[in-house]
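Check out a protein:
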Amino acid sequence: MTLEEIADFIGINCQEKKEITGLNTLLDSNENQLTFLENKKYLSDLKNTKAAAVLVTSENASEVPNGTIALICDEPYLNLAKISKLFAPNVVEMDGEKPLIGGGTKVMPNVYIGKDSVVGSDCTIMAGVFIGDNVKIGNNTIIYPNVTIYRDCVVGNDCIIHAGTVIGSDGFGFANTKDGKYIKIYQNGNVTIGNDVEIGANCAIDRAVFKSTIIEDGARLDNLVHIAHNCKIGRGSILTGQVGLAGSTILNAYVVMGGQSATAGHLEIAPFTTIAARGGVTKSITEPKKSWAGFPLFEHKQWLKLQGKISNLLK
């Protein structure tokens, strides 16, 4: 769409005919993409953006760099939500190539594989599996019954995905109007899963708003794990039952999270960190190879001492 058409859609006056191909973050946008600034803490990112245009308030418009067009509005985030619908892909493609199935792959009855999708060799796809359009699945991967893989997602080689798991469902993204109405932010990214990954039963891995939710090689997810949009799970990480990660969490390599532990969004956990069961991570962890527990989070040894002192109070 042209920038003029997009601006008209949200009621902003703009005469620019420049073609916009998609939406992205401030730092990841290219000269054909639209971005936004809502929070002042990202002003430094605004100054370095390469975007064609940015949704921005009048207060911050002077910070927009040369070569980027300022679309001035009162609520940039809300307007981004409205615009995201314009760039959302079709839910189901009616046109396209039939799926390609590699040699030695076994596909059981009652399986749907969408247009332009590719399944590698020596895979096993069990009954009730739904694989959407433009999905790529590597070699020697096993997908158990009733797994759903939404469009545009990627699964690597030698993976195991257990029954009932959903990969690529929409991330939980909404913007509020002033009267409290929720406007959906369409999740136009995907999920990318590396090689040698095992995902337990009834997990939910959300697609990214932009770009990808990523699970790197060798990761292991237990049953009932939830990964929110734009998270990154480092290689060899282990997430046990009922772990939940809020959006844009980054786990570096070989992080271990115990059952029912969770993170707040937009934080990063150092390599070889262990979070004990029911631990609540609210801030980034920068020092590697440490164990943590509790909520609020303590180093594990300190948490054990605290529990001992509390226990003594009851004697």
Remarks:
- The domain at 3-87 is CATH 3.40.1390.10 (Udp-n-acetylmuramoylalanyl-d-glutamate--2,6- Diaminopimelate Ligase; Chain: A, domain 1).
- The CA atoms of residues 5 and 246 lie 34 Å apart.
